[in-house]
Amino acid sequence: MKTVIKNIAELIQTEKTPRKWVAGEDMKNISTIKDAFVEVENGSIISFGSMADWAGIEDWNNTEVIDAEGGMVFPTYCDSHTHLVFAASREDEFVDRINGLTYTEIAQRGGGILNSVKKLQDTSQDDLYNDALARLNELVQMGTGAIEIKSGYGLTLDAELKILRVIKRLKENTDVTIKATFLGAHAIPLGYKNNKEGYMDLVINEMLPKIAKENLADYVDIFCEEGYFTVADTIRLLEAANKFGISGKTHVNQFNAIGGVKASVDLGALSVDHLEEMADEDYEALKGSNCMPTLLPGCSFFLGIPYSPAKQMMEKGLPVALASDYNPGSSPSGNMNFIASLGCTQLKMTPEEVINSTTINTAYAMGIGKELGSICVGKKANLFITKSIPSYAYLPYSFGKNVIEKVMINGKLQ
Ligand code: NIG
Ligand code: FE
Questions:
Q1: Containing domain of residue 70, as a range?
Q2: Are residues 106 and 221 in the same domain?
Q3: So what's the pLDDT on residue 176?
Q4: Label partner for 5 (CA 20 to 30 A): which of 42, 100, 115, 353?
Q5: Rounded mean pLDDT of 34-47?
Q6: 362 lines ligand 1 (CB under 6 A)
Q7: From CA 414, how far away is CA 411, in angstroms rounded?
């Protein structure tokens, strides 16, 4: 069965051949085709072009026609950083922050990540799965077609396995492209308060080998930050993970620049994420590397911390990716349309830069650049059709408004 989407006012982010990523000045450009069509077969894009060049329907019995009715077609968002599997919301801490406490102060009182850990440990795998699936379905309707999901609210072998098995079930039961990241080193659990080394031993010697053996993680992550894990811990974890063929995607420079960027880059991390605080040496480490700087403006918006210097990064020739960081503490939304708006309004990125940073560049940061991230022959047919909108800039412009009409994942309308 072939599907053709016709009468597309503008087809956004087309590519002749998949690029590795888009960096620096090049981020200012996207390729589009006005008055276009796309053809899809067996879940993949098989051709696209302008309506004037469309050959028409050869086999009426085996072709489904979707009329975009003047809407635009975009590749779905790739959200390369989320903590989608969690047990409960944390609006009590949100109120505490309104009343003057900081994220760090709340964490020091036993709230924050450890609050989510307590709740997750008491929640069954089935309940976690059902909640995560409902969230994922909501995100798909908002245009997300690929997502990375981290563990990190378990912090015991069993609870970390429980989260990673939920992610595995999501992979098996949905058409969304999903990558799993083991974030056992997310916070130091209460039982190891004065024995961080003991906890690192548990993560490295017990959790990691078991998770690698069961093939439950595509990537490994650590929260490299004052009060959490050090640069030395980061090096130790990434070295151990590399031995299993697992690369890093690390939480670095959220509150303090302590050297986590260079450590991650040196050990072949696929991405370094957060980067609200950047030192000269961090830019130096990223230059010429294969590591994607990934910014999480939803977290800055929600916690009221500084936004990452996206413009400086692009001026230095670096690529930039934007992801949601969807989690109950620092960014309780996975709405990538809103992330795109924050990219424009707060990071001062242009709509073209934002489109590149949420599609091709986040696909790279998930290791799926050959499959997703653009409208390209051979890539998966994960795309969305908008309502009739005046220009593609209208998408990040009209924040808080849903302009997405239909979503196709793996060639199927959702
Ligand atoms: O990416 N910074 C570390 N981890 C998450 C927050 C987790 C939480 O507060 O529950 C983040 O912002
Ligand atoms: Fe995060």
A1: 2-75+373-413
A2: yes
A3: 98
A4: 353
A5: 98
A6: no
A7: 9
Is the pLDDT at 232 greater than 90? The verdict is: yes
CA nearest to 250, candidates 294, 281, 208? 294
* Residue 95 confidence (pLDDT) above 90: yes
Residue with CA at minimum distance from ligand 1 atom 6:
330
Q: Give the position of tokens 């795309």.
A: 383
Does ligand 1 have an atom closer than 6 angstroms to the CB of 343?
Answer: no
β partners of residue 150: 181
pLDDT higher than 90, residue 327: yes
Cβ 113 under 6 angstroms from ligand 1 = yes
Q: What is the CATH number of the domain that holds 52?
A: 2.30.40.10
- Examine the pLDDT at 2 and tell me if it is beyond 90: yes
pLDDT at 79 over 90: yes
Q: Which atom of ligand 1 is nearest to 116's Cα?
A: 10
Give yes or no for residue 327 CB within 6 A of ligand 1. yes
In short, whether 329's Cβ falls inside 6 Å of ligand 1 is yes
112 lines ligand 1 (CB under 6 A): yes
Output the CA 125–ligand 1 centroid distance in Å: 21
pLDDT digits (tens, 9 = 90+) for 98-142: 999 999 999 988 899 999 999 999 999 999 999 999 999 999 999
Is pTM beyond 0.90? Reply is yes
Angle at which helix 157-173 crosses helix 125-141, to 10 degrees, equals 40
Find how far residue 157's CA is from the centre of its chain.
Answer: 25
Examine the domain organization and report whether 334 and 380 are in the same domain.
Answer: no
Are residues 239 and 336 part of one domain?
A: yes
Do 52 and 195 fall into the same domain? no
Q: Whose CA is nearest to atom 3 of ligand 1?
A: 223
How far does residue 83's CA lie from ligand 2's centre (Å)? 6
pLDDT of 58 strictly over 90: no
